[in-house]
Amino acid sequence: MTEVKKYPEEPLKTWNKAKELRLKYFTSYAKAHETGGLRFCGSAGSLNSIQQAFGRDVFILGSEPYSAHAAFFSDFARKCQEACESRGIAHDLCGYMKNYWGGILINQFILPTHEIVPWPKADVMWTQHICCTHAKWYQYAGELEGGVPEFGIDFNCRIGHTMTDRDIDYVLEQVLEGIEWVEKVTGRKFDDELFIEASLNELAANSAWGQAYEYNQNIPAPIDEKSLYSFFPFNILCPQWAETSALFRELRDELKDRVDRGIAAVGNERFRILTDGPPQWAMLQVYRYMEKVYGAVTLGSTYTAYWGTGWDVAEDGSLIAAKIPTREEFAQLNREARLRKYIAWKLSKQEAYSVTFTGCHPRKSALMLKIMELWKLDGAIIHLNRGCEGSAMGVLENRLDIIKAGYPVLTYEGNMGDVRDFDYAGTIRKIENFFENLGLEKLIKGG
Amino acid sequence: MSSFKNWSDNRHDYAREWKKKTGGKVLGYFCTYLPEEILYAADVLPVRIFGQHGSDIGISSAHIYDMYCPFSRSCLAEGLKGKYDYLDGVAIAQSCMHIRQAFWSWQKHLPVEYSYYIYMPHGVQSKGRYEYYRGELVEFKESLEKWLGRTISDADLDKGIDIVRKNKESMRKIWEFRKNDRPSITGLEAMEIVFSSQVTDKREHNEALEQLITELPDRKVDRETGTRLMIIGSEDDDREFTKMVEEGLSLPATFVIEDHCVGSRYFWNDFTPGEDRLASIARWYLDRPPCPSKDWPKRLRFSHIKNLIQEYKVEAAILMQQKFCDPHELDIPALKTYLDELDIPYYLIEFDVLVPAGQLKTRVEAFLETRVELV
Amino acid sequence: MANIGIDIGSQNTKVAILEDRKILALAKVPTGFDQQVSVKKAIKLGLDKAGIGMPDSAQIRVTGIGRKAVPDISTNEINETMSAAKGAFFYFPSARVVIDAGAENVTVMKVNEQMRVLDFATNDKCAAGAGSFVESMTKALGTTIDDFAKSALQRTEKININAQCVIFAESEVVSLVHSGASRADISGAIHEAIADRISALVRRVGLEKDVVVMGGMANNVGFIDALEKALDVNVLVATDPEYACAIGAAL
Amino acid sequence: MAQSKDFRDWDQYRWTAPDTDWRKASIVSCGIDIGSISTQAVIMVDGQLYAYSNMRTGSNSPDSADKALSWALEDTDGLSQDDIQYIVGTGYGRINIPMAQRAITEIACHALGANFIYGPSVRTILDVGGQDVKVIQCDEKGKVINFLMNDKCAAGTGRGMEVMADLLSVPLVEIGQKSFEVDEEPEPVSSTCVVFGKSEALSLLRKGWSIEKVLAAYCRAMANRIVELIERLGVQREFAITGGQSKNIGVVKRIEMLLNIEAVKTEKYDPQIAGGIGAALFARALFEKSRKSGG
Ligand SMILES: Nc1ncnc2c1ncn2[C@@H]1O[C@H](COP(=O)(O)OP(=O)(O)O)[C@@H](O)[C@H]1O
Ligand SMILES: Nc1ncnc2c1ncn2[C@@H]1O[C@H](COP(=O)(O)OP(=O)(O)O)[C@@H](O)[C@H]1O
Ligand code: SF4
Ligand code: SF4
Ligand code: SF4
After folding, report:
1. Which of A317, A426, C202, C206 has its CA 20 to 30 A from that of A246?
2. Using 50, 70 and 90 to split pLDDT, how confident is the model at A445?
C-alpha cells in the first residue's frame, strides 16, 4: 500500500448559509403570489437584473437549477419523467425540462425541505435561447400551464472573448423590446434605480465567485466539486440579491482561511480531477467513493468555473476574477447605455455559454487544459450527459484533446436529471479500472 | 427525370467532374440556412453535406456522442471515410447543435482551405434579426473575398441570386403538379429533385427543371395514388423509405407534400429584391418557413403545415423524426394535438438507421390500414 | 515457481500455467454455475496437462468478469484491462491497441509502450457485438461456428444486416435465407456488422498500430477479416488468443 | 447446469369445434398468422371459430403455413384447403404465404381478433409476442385507431422468457406461477437484454437467490419495460392482452399491478390465436365483398 499524506479536514462553515439561501429562493418563488408578487420563469441566468427591475417582489425561477434540485429526489423526479413520457415527450429530451414539465403535469413542486406544494404557475416566461431548444422549452411549458406569455432573447451570437459590438447591439435591441413587452404584459414599469442596485449585486456576485474559486489551486484543495455544486448555482439563481454576493465573499474568505491553515476538503487528497458538465445529481456519492477509496478529489470543471460567473479570460485561457463597474459608472449613464454596459459585461464574461453552445470545442479544450494546468490537476473524468446536448457538445473532442496533452481521461454515461440512464455499478467498475490502470491502489479495501 | 436520380446517386462523382471541368472550388455546407447565393456569386459550387443512410456510422463515434441524431453522425462519418475529399471549404449557418457538432469535428479532423461559421440568428422573430444577419452576411462575403482573392460585386450577387431564385421558383412550379388528383410526380421523384438541387450546379439543374416543367402537363401516371401522405419531419433524405412506402406496400400511398429541408421548406418563400442585396438575402432566409429550433415564441410552422395540408389535399401524415432530434421531438406533442384538431391522422416514426426496414414496413402498412376500409 | 493465471469469462474459464514467462500449460472449461468448481477443474486440467502437481508456492491470480467470485481460491485479482494488456505484450510488445472480444463482453484498450492502459471502451448496454451474436446466428442457421466463420471469406455479394439486436438479427437472417441469400453472404454481413461495432469502440480510444486481437472471437477468421477491412489495418492475432488474458494474469 | 432444449417449449396443439358441420356453412374462411416464434392457422365457418392449430414457426414461412394449415384441417370431417373460400395471411411472415389471397398486418388482425374474443368494449390491446411488443387502441368494431411497437431491441419479449426457461430449467409454462413463490417482490433485474439478462440471472443465482426470486425479478423487469411502452399510448378500458405472453401470468399480473387495471379474461378462446382469428374474420368479409362485386 502506498504511503498516504494526511491533511486536516474541517466542515465548511458557510455551508448552512447556502442551504438557507436555497430554501429562501425556492420558497419565495412558490409563495410569490401570497404577497402580490410576480413569478418570472425561464432559463436560469437570463439577465436577472433586468427582470428584477420590475419590482422587488418579482421572483425568478431558473428551470434548470429547479430541475437539478428536483433530480436529487429521484423518486419524485421519476414521477415527473414518467408523466412527460406518457404525454408523448421523448425520453431523450432535456433531462432538466422533463422534471419541469412533469411537475406541471402532476401539479407538484418540490421544496428543498422535501415538502411538496402545488405547482406555482408562472406569470411571465422570460428566457434566453442558448441551445437550439431553450426558448422552445418555455413555449411548451407556457402552453402546458394554460398559456403563459413568453419572451425569448436569442443568445446565439458571439459570447465570450469573440463578442463584437454587433452582438451587443443585437441582444440590446431584443432587451429593449422585451422591457416594453413586460411593461405591457404586467402593467409594471421598469425601475432604473432597482436595476442599478440589482445589476451591481449581480456582477459583484459573479466576480466574487471567481475569487473564491481560485483558492482551489492550492494543494490540498480547500473545497471539492461536490460542495462547489451547492454554491455556484446562485450565480444564476439570484445573483442580483445582496445575499448572494455576501455569501460568495464569505465563502471566499473561508477558503482563504482554510488555505492559510492547510485545511483540506479531502484529507487523503493524492489525485486531483477535472470533471465536466452537470453531474448525475442523484448519484453524487460517486464523488465520495472516489475520495474515500482512492483519495481522488474532483475539484474543478468548466461548468462550476464558468457558468454565469465573472472572469476575464485571456486569449490563452488564463483567468482572473473580473473587474466590476462602480456605482458611479452605472449611475451616470442613461438607461440604454447602462443596459448596454451590463449586457456587454455579461456577454463577455460568459465564456461557458459560448464554448458550450456554439460547440466551439477547440476553445473549450483550451480552457479545460488551462484549468488543468493552473489548478494542478492529474486527470479528467467526463460525464457523457444524455440529458443535455448542450453541455455534452464537443466533449468527445475535448476528451481527445486532453488525452493528447498527456492526461488520463475517463468518460461515463449518465443523465443529469434522470437516474434511469445511469448505471451505478458499471460506473464504479469503470472508475476502479481507471485508477488501477493508473497504478493508484485502494486506500481501503472493498468500498 | 432520370437526371435527378443520377445526380442523387452519383453526387460525389458529379462534384469531382465539375471541379475538373470548371477548375472552380467546391464548398460543403451543413444546413440549408446557408446563403448559397453568395457562393454562386463567388463562382464557388455549394454542395450540401449529407450522410449515407444504412451505412456504418461507427467511425464518427469517437467524435460525436451517440445521443446526437443519426443524421449528424452520418454526415461526419462520410467525411471521415474520405467521401468528401474534393471539398475546398466547409461552412455552416447556425442551426441545431447536432449538426454544429458535425461541423466542428469536420473542421478539426478534415482540414480544408476555408471554413466558416455564420451566426445565423435563432430568433427569427426577434427584433434586430435582419440587421444582425445582414451583418453576418457582410462578414461572410468579406471572408470569401479574402479566401478567393477577388471581390464580389453587386453584379456578381445579382447573378448568384438569379441562379438560386430560378431554381427555387421552378421547384415551386413543379410542386403544383403534386396537387393533382393523380400527382404527376411521386414523393420519391420529388425528393430526388430537391436532393440533387443541393448537390449539383444549379445552372445545370435549372435546365433539367425547365425541361421537366414542359413535360409534366402531359405526363402519364399509371400508378394508383392511394392515401395522400405528407411527411413532416427532421432532415430526411431517405429514399429507400420513401420508395418502400410508395411502391412496396400492399396498400397504395403517395407522398404529395412534405415539410422538411430536403423538400418544400428549402424553396418555399419568395425572394424580394432590393437595393441592398445582402439585406434582401438575409430577409429571404429569416422569413422562410422556420425549422422548429427557430420557431418561437410564436408557432409559425404549424399554420404553414396546415396550409400545405389543405392545398395538397393531404389525408394522413407521417412524422419522420430523426432519433434524438430535439428541436423536432419537442414540437411533436403540440403538433399531434394540432393535427388531431385538423382531423388528420398521423404516425410517428423515430428514425434511426438501425431500425430494420421490415419493421417499418409493418408499421406504415398498419397505419394505412387504420384509415382505409380494409374490406 | 509456477504462476497460475485464471480468466473467468461469462462463457469459459481459462487457465494458464507459466514458469519464468514460459507457458507450461493452457486449459479451458466452460464457466459453469459454480465458478469455484469450474476454476478448480480448470486448474486441475492445466496441471495435468503440464504434468505437474500443485506447486507449494504457486501464485494464483484471477481476472475476468468473475474475478471476485472465487475468494477461496484467490483474492489476488487483476482487472481485465490490465491482464489483457499484459497478455498482449507477452505476444506482441508493439501492441498499442488491444481488443479483447469474448462471448458477451468486448473491451478495447489503448496502451503505451510501458504497457500502461491509457484508455479503454466497452460494449456497455447491448450484447450485439460479441461472440454470442455469432452463436445465435449459427443456431438459427443450424451450422457450426467454425463453418459459419469460414464461409464469410467466400462472400460474393454485399448485403447489410440492419438489425442491431441479436434477436431481431436472427429473424432478419431467417428471412434473408428465404429470399435466397447465400450462407456466405449472410455470414459476411453478420461479421461485418460485428466488426463495425467493435471498430467503433476502437475509434473511441483511437486507432493506432499495432492492433492485437484476443479472446475467443480472435479465433473467428470471418470476424478478423471483417475487422481488418473496417479498420483498414492488418491486425495481430496471438496463438491461443482466448488464453491471452489468463496469461496476462499469470505474468 | 444441464442445458435442455425442452424447457422453452410449450405444447403445440390443435382443436376442432364439436358439433359444427362445416358443410352447412355458407362461408369457410381462414387466417394464418406466422409470427417469429409461433404460427397459427385458424378456420372459421360463418364467422364462428371452427378449428385451429398452434405450433412453433419453422425455418420458412411457406412451409410453416402449409404445416399449420394441414394440421388445423386434420380432424375436420373431410374439410380440405380447396373448400376454404378465402385465406388471409398475417404476422411477420405474411408476405410469404402462397395460399393466402391477401396479407393484412398483425396489428389490424390482433385488434379485430381481440374484439371477437373479448367483445366490443375492448379499447386497448397489448400484444406481446416472440420479439415484438405492440400496444393497440381500437374502436368498438375492432378497427385500429392508434398503435405503438417496440423497435430495435427485443428486451422484454417472449424470446427472453424462453432463454430464461432454458437457463433455469423451468418449463416455460410454469414460469408465471413460480415467479410468485417468493416472500417479497425483489428488485427487477437491471438488464432485460436477452443476452445480458442471462448473465445477470446467473450471477443472482450465484449470490444465492432462489430460482423463483430470479424469475420474479425478471418478470418484473419485463413488465416494467412493457408498461413504459403502454404508458406512451395510454390505456383506455377495456384492456385486453393477446399473444403468447398473455399466458404468462408472471408478466401479466405484474403489468396489471403496475397499471392498476385488470385485463379482461376469457376461458372461451385462446388469446394466442387472436391474430389468426382476426385474419380469418377479414377473410370472411373479403370473400363476401368479392362475392357481391363479382356477382
Ligand atoms: N474456434 C472458434 N472459431 C470461431 N469463434 C470462436 C472459436 N472459439 C471461440 N469462439 C468465439 O469466442 C466466444 C467465446 O470467447 P471467450 O473469450 O472464451 O469468452 P468469455 O471470456 O467471454 O467467456 C464464443 O462466443 C465464440 O463466438
Ligand atoms: N403456455 C404458455 N405459457 C407461458 N408463455 C407462453 C405460453 N405459450 C407461449 N408463451 C410465450 O409466448 C411467446 C410466443 O408468443 P406469440 O405471440 O405466439 O409469438 P409470435 O410473435 O410468434 O406471434 C413465447 O416466446 C413464450 O414466451
Ligand atoms: S442546453 Fe441542456 S440543459 Fe439547456 S435546454 Fe438544452 S438540453 Fe436542457
Ligand atoms: S434538426 Fe434534427 S435532424 Fe436536423 S441535424 Fe438537428 S437534430 Fe439532426
Ligand atoms: S438489442 Fe438485443 S442484444 Fe441488444 S440489448 Fe436489446 S435484446 Fe440485448
Report:
1. A317
2. low
Lowest-pLDDT range, B177-186, D28-37, D147-156?
D147-156
Nearest to A226 by CA among A289, A284, A283: A284
Superfamily of domain D122-263: ATPase, nucleotide binding domain (3.30.420.40)
Alpha-carbon distance A433 to nearest alpha carbon in chain C (angstroms): 7
Q: pLDDT per residue over C146-165, tens digit each?
A: 999 999 999 888 887 777 77
Mutational pocket test of ligand 3: of A66, A389, A415, A418, the residue with most ligand atoms within 8 Å of the beta carbon? A389
Both C27 and C119 in one domain: the answer is: no
To the nearest 10°, report the CA torsion of A396, A400, A406, A410: 30
Q: How far is B71 from B237, CA to CA, in rounded Å?
A: 10
Closest approach of A398 to chain B, Cα-based (Å): 9
* C86 shares a domain with C28: no
Q: What gap in Å lies between CA C47 and CA C17, rounded to an integer?
A: 8
Residue A183: count of CB within 10 angstroms of its CB: 13
* Domain edges within chain B: 15-158
Write down the pLDDT at residue D234.
84
Domain that holds residue C26: 1-77
Mean pLDDT of A332-336: 96
CA–CA dist C129, C101 (Å, integer): 9
Write down the pLDDT at residue D2: 37
Higher pLDDT, D33 or A311: D33
For domain B15-158, which architecture applies?
3-Layer(aba) Sandwich (3.40)
DSSP B154-184: HHHHHHHHHHHHHHHHHHHHHHHGGGSSS-S
* D105, D144, D152: residue with CB nearest B362: D105
The DSSP code sequence of B74-87 is HHHHHHHTTTTTT-
Residue C247 in domain: no
pLDDT at C32: 80
Q: Among residues of chain B, what percentage have pLDDT more than 70? A: 98
Residues written for chain B: 375
3-state secondary structure chain C: CEEEEEEECCCEEEEEEEECCEEEEEEEEECCCCHHHHHHHHHHHHHHHHCCCCCCCCEEEEECCCHHHCCCCCCCECCHHHHHHHHHHHHCCCCCEEEEECCCCEEEEEECCCCCEEEEEECCCCCCCCHHHHHHHHHHHCCCHHHHHHHHHHCCCCCCCCCCCHHHHHHHHHHHHHCCCCHHHHHHHHHHHHHHHHHHHHHHHCCCCCEEEECHHHHCHHHHHHHHHHHCCCEEECCCHHHHHHHHHHC
pLDDT at res. A260: 97
Residue C173 and residue C143 in contact, taking contact as beta carbons nearer than 8 Å: no
Q: How many angstroms separate the CA atoms of A172 and A337, rounded?
A: 10
Whether pLDDT at A325 is above 70: yes
Query: D86-90 and C106-111 as β-strands: parallel, antiparallel, unpaired?
Result: unpaired
Scanning the structure block, which residue is given the C-alpha cell 456582477? A203
- Which residues in chain B are contacts of C168 at CB distance < 8 A? 356, 359
User: What is D13-114+272-293's CATH number, 3.40.640.10, 1.20.58.220, 3.30.70.100, 3.30.420.40?
Assistant: 3.30.420.40
Query: Closest residue of A to B118, CA-based?
Result: A157
Q: What angle do CA B346, B347, B349 make, to 5 degrees?
A: 145
Q: Do D13-114+272-293 and D122-263 have matching folds?
A: yes
Residue-range domain boundaries for chain D: 13-114+272-293, 122-263
More confident residue, B29 or C3: B29
- In chain D, the residue whose alpha carbon lies closest to the alpha carbon of C139 is D59
Q: In this predicted structure, what is the pLDDT of residue A278?
A: 87
Residues B139, B145: Cα–Cα separation, whole Å: 10
ipTM over 0.85: no
